[in-house]
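User: I've been going back and forth on whether these two constructs are worth ordering. Before I decide, could you fold them both?

Assistant: Sure. I'll take them in the order you sent them. The first construct and its structure tokens:
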Amino acid sequence: MNKRDELTEAATDYALAHGLIGLSLRPLAAELGTSDRMLIYHFGSKDELVAAVLEASNDRSKAVIHAMQPSASLRAAVLDLWATYTEGQVQRCQRMYVEAAALGLFGREPYATSIRASNAVWMAAMATHLERSGVAAADAPRLAGLIDATFNGVLLDRPLDDEAESRQIVEDLATALGRSQRGSE
């Protein structure tokens, strides 16, 4: 691992703990035991550093999804993905994704570009899990999009909802998709 890669991983850990909004190079550099100038030297700009952090975060989430065991059914896959999505590393990565997506909505770079790339990688990982869980390859990308959109909506509303309500929304989605899959067979 080269110095840039080491800094990317450490900066990703920092951003996952402190968030992206208001990220400042000096406190980040101090935490990493370097200077803001050295960060610019290794990344070229703050935007390039943020893009690297977002990519590393996404890669971490993707690795967790790829490591999941296949689920017994589409319904089980939705519930398994939600459990993974809302725990530990993936939950922190998803929260950072939401921050970046919000900034990207305003056209801020590197967020807009990074989020587009992140979405493609994330959706492919989810679709792969669905396929491994018995979903037809032709249906997996579309269903991954539906599941991801629901999860993100619940994540955005979650501070306003209680855990039971969030879980019920996901249960309802899982049940509906499970029924639709059985109906199409």
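The second construct, handled the same way:
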Amino acid sequence: MSKISACRCHISVHNSIWVGIQTMSASMQIPTPRAMFPDIEPYETGMLKVSDIHTVYYEQCGNPDGKPVIFLHGGPGSGFTQRDRTFFDPSVYRIVLMDQRGAGKSTPPAEIRENTTWLLVSDIETLRQKLGIERWMVFGGSWGSTLALVYAIKHAERVKALILRGIFTVRRKEVIWLYQDGGTYIFPDEFEGFMKPIPEVERFDLMGAYYRRLTGYDKDKQVAAAKAWSRWEMAISRLYLDQDNLSRAEADNWALQFARLECHYFVHGAFLEKDDWILANVDKIRHIPTTIIHGRYDIICPVVTAWDLHKVFPEADFHIVPDAGHSNREPGIQTQLLNACDKYKDL
């Protein structure tokens, strides 16, 4: 073969490869999610006194005579948003949302006293009784999935169905993955920012170092630590970086609620009796219709936790979304959540 022929052959192969890459890139577009239901306003809002310290905010939306569902937000500490109302068909569902202790519009904000998983479970029951609801569907993602599982285990007779997204059981290895030695291998650039407020001598226990700052008396250090903590999670929560997510971490009040409450809960193992308490008690809820949804590339809550839940709860519908991270705003996860809500309309 002449040098010219060989060169032409080489160019032809490269052109073929380039065409293949272009074709593959065109086919790897972000999928179009199923549309959320239209924005709605609550027909009732209220403040429920749950302790000498805490008052929690709640609201009801949709159909007052519809099928009751409670939305449990993540964090702990993130609070719910207006968008969270729109996972549910408002003509079918009586939608209840509650800001957990210290979060959102609940008062006092970012308060960690009298704030444990068991007290949050008690608050959910207090709200159910106040609203005169016999049984309801429970919808929770991330920390909300943790709280939904614990609530269902303690009050299975009150739960008609569970929709769980981004499974998190607060085992020590899950927390270490996120805040010490795991996510850093995938987002080393963002993890450097997370470590920045902590002197090198304290970095062997980043959660402990953050806890000291987030609960200390220096307000400036509290806010700086809260923003760094919050940015780390906002930066890694989606498959594609979301600037709106990052902007949340810049708001002093929201960052303090989010970071203080998360750190408080995770340093204390969510106040559960043992590390695998949730998985060890799943048998108590295996009769409840349940859907589990998890992103394949979830860095905050790696998919192995959802897999571990699936293995002890094989009756549940189990969906790994192949092109998603952690957020319920990602197209595949959003679609699966809406489908699950439709599935349980007739319960």
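Notes on the second construct follow. The longest helix spans residues 3-27. The radius of gyration is 22 Å.
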